[in-house]
Amino acid sequence: MIADEDMKPISPGAPVSCPSAEHVSTGIPIPKPIRVTTFSPAEWESFTQEWASSLKDLYVRVARHTGSGDQGVDVAGFISDRGWEGGWDNYQCKHYDHPLRPSDIWVEVGKIIYYSYKGEYSPPRKYYFIASRDIGTKLGKLIEAPDRLKEEARNNWESSCKNGIIETSSIPLKDDLLRWFEEFDFSIFSTKSVVELIDGHSKTPFHSVRFGGGLPPRPEVLIPPEEHEVVESRYIQQIFNAYGDSLRKAVNSVSELSSSLNSDFLRQRERFYHAESLRNFARDTVPDGTFESLQDEIFHGVIDICDSSHGDGLARMKATVTQAATIATASNPLRSVVKVQDQQGICHQLANEDRLFWVPTSEEA
């Protein structure tokens, strides 16, 4: 029996650091490498696909095998337009409840040897094992010693590969396949750590949504060039239509504008460039469709104003842009970086796509 004097009152020690308001609200953040280990197999697969998009800077093309019978290839990075024959790297993804062991990889080693022997593809330049709980010590030492890795792969072929590569066929290691095995370069096998995966993932648009932590700072917005870009042609024509409707005469160039309208025109272009800057920022920091969702939110927030009766096209444009500035975009992942000018500029993006009209024609009304 435990003596009373061996029992001590529970008295938690002082926190290592002063807790912040965020800690009180959400708890102490879970480090990303630990969070990754809690992913379900489906989440790990999604994370892997997201991470693979960070490899596009290294390869001409990156592809993930999605069909049945992966032939030992999960993610392939091709270094030239020649595909499999032009040099490629393989990334084999594993989600287990333990660090990767030698017994976890023998069938994968067997697949890459067998299918390259069969001519399904050339042997990869590099072959990386990436696991949700990293690589165990024993496997790590084997990978660092290619000759030992080859010897262990040979010893385990009968138990792991012979009937494991193809469920319906037995593949003994003999004759030409054995000669291919002996000549195979086992130094291609390597690993990618979870820390490396997270670092690569941080360079994708998916990182902030999956791990939180907020968006990075936005770059400075470009000043609109004096010469109008081709991409601006439609919304600028719509602005000229609005000015012309107010002046009761056609307006076809900036030189025809008064000083006050010229100042207004510059403001509208600056707003458009703000929105374009946000579009580019979103492309690099949040998943596809996030910015388009924001555009739809602005559209639905202003369309009733835009479709209402106004004295002229300029009044309609100003009323619509003013309404856009008041819309709360609380549900969009970009909300922390969205400025009033962005929301106003989105109106001009919508006009550029003929979703909003400042001077509707009989067909557009």
TrEMBL record:
InterPro entries: ABC-3C_CTD6. Pfam families: CTD6 (PF20282). Residues 232-358 form the ABC-three component systems C-terminal domain. This is ABC-three component systems C-terminal domain-containing protein. Residues 1-24 are annotated as: Disordered.
